[in-house]
Design goal:
Length: about 50
């Protein structure tokens, strides 16, 4: 039973470190904003009637 508890604690710490790493990347890394222009063909606006 102690080995199972040790494994669960280890996995919990590993998941916690991963969560903190993802949170730190999302919080501290700033990407520059840029415009994206997408042209949509006119036939995409027409509804197909059957």
């Amino acid at each position: 039973m102690p080995s199972l508890f040790r494994f669960l604690v280890f996995m919990g710490l590993l998941c916690g470190i991963g969560y903190v790493a993802v949170f730190a990347l999302a919080t501290f890394v700033k990407y520059p904003q840029r415009e994206i222009v997408v042209t949509v063909p006119p036939d995409k606006f027409l509804k197909h009637q059957r």
